[in-house]
Design goal:
By secondary structure, the protein is an alpha/beta fold. It has a single domain, classed as Vaccinia Virus protein VP39 (Rossmann fold). 30% of the residues lie in helices and 26% in strands. The protein has seven helices and seven strands. A seven-stranded mixed beta sheet has the order 3-2-1-4-5-7-6, sandwiched between helices. The longest helix has 14 residues. It binds S-adenosylmethionine.
Length: 195
């Protein structure tokens, strides 16, 4: 089942809302990061830059065949071989990936899901102990040029509470202002998974 209001404008407009490298560096995504799981990769706005920054593989998942085709084509064109893009409904089926292996998981612009805790629980499962979940979402502000309806657009404190319920640890220093339109959150999987 597709996450509500997760449709995208055309790629050029969507890309204009982000500086992916700046955001990924703010999340300390670098060569010390091995494997990454990206939930809902869309056009690959963050996927290819991540692949260039890390030392492992980006497991990029999307329900839309056209998005997966786009990401694969862009990787082929740019000679990027450490992206595995797969068409999958992670709401219905989970990621299908093993547990406890990834250094990082991304839930970017998708946590307006009907059951956000279930997405975060799947992220927790795939992460290794002390692995990190990064969240990006649109500021809860009617002036943003896009983003889900404000009634379903999560505020940072809601995401933090969902993360806590899913089993993550959150430090107040890990709330980032990703100007101009977004905020970012970094959650950590505890050494000993409580679930
Ligand atoms: C708003 S877009 C965000 C794309 C990307 N994360 C970004 O920030 O550029 C959400 C993406 O999630 C995908 N998606 C929605 N529901 C999904 C599901 N159940 N399983 C896999 N992908 C899903 C959509 O097809 C879309 O590409």
């Amino acid at each position: 089942m597709k996450v509500r209001e997760s449709g995208m404008p055309d790629e050029a407009l969507w890309s204009s809302f982000f500086d992916p490298e700046r955001i990924l560096r703010a999340f300390s995504i670098d060569k010390n990061t091995k494997d990454v799981v990206e939930f809902g990769c869309g056009y690959g706005t963050f996927t290819l830059v991540t692949a260039l920054l890390i030392s492992g593989i980006v497991f990029a998942i999307d329900i839309e065949p056209a998005m997966i085709a786009t990401v694969r084509e862009k990787c082929d064109r740019e000679g990027i071989s450490n992206v595995l893009a797969e068409e999958l409904d992670f709401v219905a089926k989970g990621t299908g990936l093993p547990g406890d292996f990834a250094d990082a998981a991304f839930l970017f612009n998708i946590l307006h899901h009907e059951q956000p805790v279930s997405l975060m629980t799947e992220a927790l499962r795939v992460l290794r102990p002390e692995g990190r979940l990064m969240v990006i979402h649109w500021n809860h502000n009617p002036d943003t040029p896009r983003g889900p309806a404000l009634e379903i657009r999560p505020r940072p404190d809601q995401c933090i509470e969902w993360g806590r319920v899913a089993g993550f640890v959150f430090s107040p220093d890990d709330l980032l202002d990703l100007k101009p339109y977004h905020y970012g959150l970094i959650f950590r999987k505890p050494q000993e998974n409580r679930s």
